[in-house]
UniProtKB/TrEMBL annotation:
Protein family according to the UniProt entry: Belongs to the NAD-dependent glycerol-3-phosphate dehydrogenase family.
Domain Glycerol-3-phosphate dehydrogenase NAD-dependent N-terminal: 11-40, 44-137
EC number: 1.1.1.94
Name of this chain's protein: Glycerol-3-phosphate dehydrogenase [NAD(P)+]
Length: 315
């Protein structure tokens, strides 16, 4: 279907945290009208979605199902695309955010927006690139037009599941990477960790419906490089803090904002156990987060695994 080619479109952005605010600023920078909604701003969801040409959700995972449910009751104008920018997995249903939006809005195009996009850098107007992915190419191109600028290069993709899972699964690996750096294990160890982690992400991601090549792109490898190498990443900081001997509770308190990788790890392990997918690195992150082992024991467990060929079907 055709989407409006207006100079000034109206965007509703749900979630006024770090990412929702940065996305609102990017679209505002292009001259679009922004209706920002969050629980704390005092406006109603009804008011926020009125007249929207496009709805963007940048809500933390824990709020997605409830907000999508509320919006379903309110109703949104026909055919308005919903762009989901959340990186996480639902603790109850194990679904991805796009699966939740799709279930509640089967007649609306769903677009996933994901890439190496540390919001603190975007807020400083440093250049970045991202991906908008949808089975509806017209809707992906609409989102591309609204967000693309000299600040953000936006690519389209026809693989929403792979795009979404890249951004989601790398948060678990960012925790592992923070541990690796916090323990000062060196560049050899870090390179081995990230390379094997990419193999692990591809194994899970393709099992759940993503395309292999997507994981080598911006939303997979690209986002992994950003978050696994930057103290701006909250998930990286969780791992770093654990390596310093802090408890998870203290680290999360100090962060004061969302580190999706903690919940994602728990949900991922539930999926991996249910579907019998080997996830050696994520499993050590899970054991560490759940106080079953300490950081040194996690490293030891990975180093002492059975020897095998590098490219091996199982793990
Ligand atoms: N900050 C970043 O650099 C990036 C973040 N993301 C993703 O965007 C999502 C949001 O992250 P941030 O904005 O950084 O987190 P944040 O903690 O700064 O903001 C979270 C937002 O979600 C809302 N929220 C939380 N629980 C809710 C609920 N139960 N009902 C309704 N709204 C609720 C909060 O009010 C707030 O507006 C996460 O999934 C994150 O992985 C994606 C790319 C970049
Ligand atoms: O997803 C992100 C950058 O692309 C943000 O990472 P954190 O959630 O770890 O801060």
């Amino acid at each position: 279907m055709e989407f409006p080619d207006k100079e000034q479109a109206t965007l509703t952005v749900l979630g006024a945290g770090a990412w929702g605010s940065a996305l609102a600023e990017l679209a505002g920078h292009n001259g679009h009208k922004i209706n920002l909604w969050s629980r704390r701003l005092g406006n109603t969801l009804e008011e926020a979605v009125e007249g929207a040409d496009l709805i963007v959700s940048a809500i933390s995972m824990k709020g997605v199902a409830a907000t999508a449910g509320k919006l379903q009751e309110i109703g949104i104008p026909d055919h308005v695309p919903i762009v989901t920018a959340t990186k996480g997995l639902d603790a109850e249903s194990t679904r991805t955010p796009s699966q939740i939006w799709e279930q509640d809005f089967p007649d609306h195009p769903i677009v996933v927006l994901s890439g190496p996009n540390l919001s603190a850098e975007i807020e400083r107007h440093l250049p970045a690139a991202t991906v908008v992915a949808s089975s509806d190419l017209g809707a992906a191109e609409f989102a591309q037009r609204l967000f693309a600028s000299s600040l953000l290069r936006v690519y389209t993709s026809n693989d929403p599941m792979g795009t979404e899972l890249g951004g989601t699964l790398k948060n678990v690996i960012a925790i592992a990477s923070g541990v690796c750096d916090g323990l000062q294990l060196g560049i050899n160890a870090k390179s081995a960790l990230l390379t094997r982690a990419l193999t692990e992400m591809i194994r899970i991601g393709t099992h759940l419906g993503g395309q292999t090549e997507t994981f080598f792109g911006l939303s997979g490898l690209g986002d992994m490089l950003a978050t696994c190498n930057s103290a701006l990443s909250r998930n990286y900081r969780v791992g770093y803090g654990l390596a310093e001997g802090k408890t998870l509770e203290v680290i999360l308190q100090e962060l004061g904002s969302t580190a999706e990788g903690v919940n994602t790890t728990n949900v991922l392990i539930a999926i991996a156990d249910r579907e019998k997918i080997p996830v050696p690195i994520s499993r050590q992150v899970y054991r560490l987060l759940n106080n079953e082992i300490n950081p040194e024991e996690a490293v030891e467990a990975l180093m002492e695994r059975d020897l095998k060929p590098e490219f091996h079907e199982e793990s």
